[in-house]
Design a protein that fits this description.
Elements lengths: L17 H8 L7 E5 L9 E4 L1 H11 L24 H14 L8 H18 L4 H13 L3 H17 L1 H9 L2 H4 L7
Antiparallel strand pairs: 1-2
Length: 186
């Protein structure tokens, strides 16, 4: 389909739906719920602030200095079913493979410009706390002929990796250093 970005999410049903009720009964929300509260709504819908992005952020902050092992779903047998606490890593891996990694091979200026805009917003919000977005924003800038911006984003990547074992582990496990060697070196 050649979309600019492929959203991938773990299912998070809307409040008050039969799927939400089933997941609550089976306790299937796990790490993907970042904040659930009863807002006094008698319909039972409640108000949820959910999503994998929130779960990734919470996990990264908790594991900055001592990261839990990274689960790579693509090293498992095809019949393996991930357990709940592995789903955030499944989502992260899929997001990296379908959205980030292809940027290193893309040469189309109009696509790189769109990705640059999306990544700029993420880096502005997260800065050094999302070195993957900073790395690929730097790659976009390099490919678009903006060398001054590349060093700025590579500095964010370096500082983010120095500050977080969580991110260092993911860069290593996903082969980010190898796939981006033309644009970033340790």
């Amino acid at each position: 389909m050649d979309l600019d970005w492929y959203p991938s999410q773990i299912v998070m049903p809307m409040g008050g739906t039969p799927v939400q009720q089933m997941m609550l009964e089976q306790d299937e929300y796990g790490e993907t719920v970042t904040n659930a509260k009863d807002d006094g709504d008698t319909s039972g819908a409640g108000t949820f602030s959910v999503g994998v992005t929130g779960a990734v952020r919470e996990r990264e902050m908790a594991e900055k200095e001592k990261a839990a092992p990274f689960f790579d779903p693509f090293t498992q047998s095809s019949d393996y079913v991930p357990v709940r606490n592995q789903l955030v890593d499944v989502w992260f891996t899929v997001d990296y493979l379908i959205n980030y990694r292809p940027i290193a091979a893309d040469t189309r200026p109009h696509k790189l410009q769109k990705k640059k805009v999306m990544l700029e917003e993420l880096v502005q919000r997260m800065g050094v706390e999302h070195p993957l977005a900073a790395l690929f924003l730097g790659i976009c800038e390099a490919k678009l002929g903006n060398p001054d911006a590349v060093s700025k984003y590579n500095d964010l990547v370096r500082r983010g990796l120095e500050a977080s074992e969580y991110w260092r582990m993911r860069f290593e496990a996903l082969g980010v250093y190898d796939s981006c060697a033309d644009y970033y070196s340790r």
